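Researcher: Quick sanity check before group meeting.
Model: Go ahead. Protein one:
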Amino acid sequence: MNTKYWIALSSIEQLDSSFIQRLYNYFGDIETAYNAPISEFRQVEGLSIKKAETFIEKRKSIDLDKTTDYVLDKGIKVLTFDDEKYPYMLRQISDPPACLYYKGDLFSCNLERTVAFVGSRKASFTGKDSVKKIISDLSGTDICIVSGLAAGIDSTSHESALDNGLKTIGVIASGLNYTYPASNKDLYERIEQGGGAVVTEYYPTFEPLKFRFPQRNRIVSGLSYGTVIAEAAIKSGALITANLTLEQGRELMCIPGAISNSNMEGVYKLLRDGASMVTSGNDILNALGWEIQQNKASERKIEMDMNEKIIFDIISVEPKGFDELLAVTGLSSDELLVCLTGMELKGLVEQIAGDRYKRV
């Protein structure tokens, strides 16, 4: 069984996927590559001899079966590069991961309908709301949302996918022994327990070190037919993913936002350079050339009384605070509170930070 050789190689922190791929491409068989002497490694074009020497030294102490059992005993599934089920789109990038470790059900996701959403960890309310709106437009399709399970836009993208009945793939920058950030523990569980899969190229013991996040980004874009950038400063991880998307020959799309938001500087640069603009789910379908039949249940018409209609119109563009609604509607505090509570129960509005209300 070749899997244990792939796992053993990927368990050595000093090696990277490009080193493992060079070995595999040269020898044509991972077991042969794993057992080769240093003299043969010297014949492999572009291979780091320093890394080869490190591997030879580390190899002496690796117990192949124990290294593999450590993974499987944790309920972690493994997909290796030579497996016919390895995702086609990811196989096409210049530096595909040697192993994919995952929890959840990767193959419940339609890997032929994947779209990445990425953006700032310190995303604005408007940026998150835009992502929610666009992903909700895709409800009723078999599109799979890919992101990096970080705070901000990533988390919002995964949550929106799950809330709208879409599958989602979270690509993390550590081994599966870690949940990063810790605040996403519940989100990890939702994905793993039926929402899709949490995926990584890293052996379970690898920590979420800073340099691994940019490495992770190539997998986010590599799994996807296109990438949507929600918010991105000029120097940001989202811009790295945008550049990787273009290098990989995939469709780059951007969500516009307020020009006063510094996180939009990168977005507008990408739009000026030719990225597609996205303001709805249909824009994504058009950019990717997908014709997808949506199986949406008929929407329930929600009745509103006069006061509810007034409030609903007032918050049509942006959220409004309780005091502002009091001043505009002329209602008493008790009347307004009753209206807002009723509208929340009907699913018309929701309360957000700062005692403000927005349309759902």
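Researcher: Fine. The other one?
Model: Protein two, sequence then structure:
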Amino acid sequence: METTNKAKLMDGSAPAKRMLARAKGKVEKIRRAAQMTPTLATVLVGDDLASATYVRMKRKRCEDAGMKSLLLEMPHGTTTGQIVAEIEKLGADPTVHGILVQHPVPQPIDKRAAFEAIPIEKDVDGVTSGTLGRVILGMPSFASCTPAGIMALLGEYHVELDGTHAVVIGRSPILGRPMASMLINAHATVTLCHSRTRSLPSIVRNADVVIAAVGRPRFVQGGWIKVGAVVIDAGYNPGNIGDVDFEGALEPCSLITPVPGGVGPMTIATLIDQTADAAALQLGIEL
């Protein structure tokens, strides 16, 4: 039984390493061609420990890929106008190729105003309305990193999406909504749900693919999962707990992502890869 369970796990670490290796090759080509190193600027507001940890992880992956990482730390009490002004400076800086505003952004900052200050060509985290519009329309773009990473992971495990019923639980503009659009563009039939959806268990029971991104620990119960379904847990809660009751879902599902080690590594690898692509486009280098 243990072997069977291991076979069901969708490990994100190995494909993330391969993606990072490809990104490193892109960075080396850009450096040779343009005599410039691709640079990702991260804006961190406040002193949230989890956010600081995520930023350190992202900076480490940048360095591993041979990319520069620029960190702009701003204190609690920073106003919307102040953060927008700093982002606009980064947007105008030709040596900066990608901009990431670490979220959650503390209140009372208008996070949408901060996101919209990022030029679309440097929106490597896929947070602007312009990027979301392009994702919905199936146009080329630097998509939100978590759903883009999930799509890459589904591809790695040869999950056939054409004609399937996919249920996305979570409607955030940087995860649930772009996730639903990417699945639709892959010819899945998508039901976009959230924590207030009525009869949610019965909806999930009809899903061939379940994407849980609701931000509540063990919210999706094992009894909701259809036999043979693919389960992607995009949640991360204190104690390394996802949004899915992992033990309960393990038996009926055909594939499931662990937490940690599933979606997380793919998210960061996608960010690094998209930054390399952004640098190439801005510098006119064909990869």
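Researcher: One line on it for the slide.
Model: The longest helix spans residues 13-34.
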